[in-house]
Amino acid sequence: MNRLRAHWKRWLIAGVAVAALLVVGGPYVYINYVKDEAPSALSIDNGQEPAEQEGTQPTREGVEGAWKVGAGSQAGYRVDEVLFGQNTTAVGRTDKVTGGLTIKGAEATEGAFTVDLTSVKSDSGERDGQFRGRIMNTAKFPEATFKLTRPIDFGSVPESGKKVSAKASGTFTIHGVTKDVSFEVTAQRSANSFRVQGSLPVTFADYGVERPNFGGITVEEKGAIEFLLTFHPA
């Protein structure tokens, strides 16, 4: 009987050890050898030229006037996760972005853009389902919107190809909650369009978003809303 108990005890210990190895080692193998690396941050330095809108577009010698968000624009989220003790980064994006900007001199005097949250996708269908469901409840809150509340002063009108940076201040609305925000944006002008990139830090609790932890995944309390907007003449 004692020999039988010792036999089962060894099997029990071995089973626990194997289970622990699978819990820790499985995610390590997945993250480091199977899962693709998270996409780099959205940036005007990615080497891609602004996409031209289909059809006949108005041309403009200077930058003053109204501009609209068009082809080549993207926005989404970036947040760090811990998967069974292994660190990874989740990124979700969409090209369903609308909005516009009005420029006078070297200032963006008015502007806003809206992101369709129902179309945001990552590399995980399960994560996307959680994002659209209990995390963001996109059935009730399908959009996120940023709106300028004061002009962005770029100091001077940049030459084509030159980058300029400035502070953007406005309101950001997501999950039915609106907050005042400020963050840096970088713009680059091209022949008949220009691009603007930015990253807005977000603390989930500030917007009434439940910290998204599920299925052995722990998500950090803070993340970022990234965007790269391409503006064409309106």
From TrEMBL:
The chain crosses the membrane at residues 12-31. Pfam families: YceI. Keywords: Membrane, Transmembrane, Transmembrane helix. Residues 66-232 form the Lipid/polyisoprenoid-binding YceI-like domain. The keyword Nucleus does not apply. Coiled coil: none annotated. Gene3D superfamilies: Lipid/polyisoprenoid-binding, YceI-like. Belongs to the UPF0312 family. This is YceI-like domain protein. It comes from Streptomyces turgidiscabies (strain Car8).
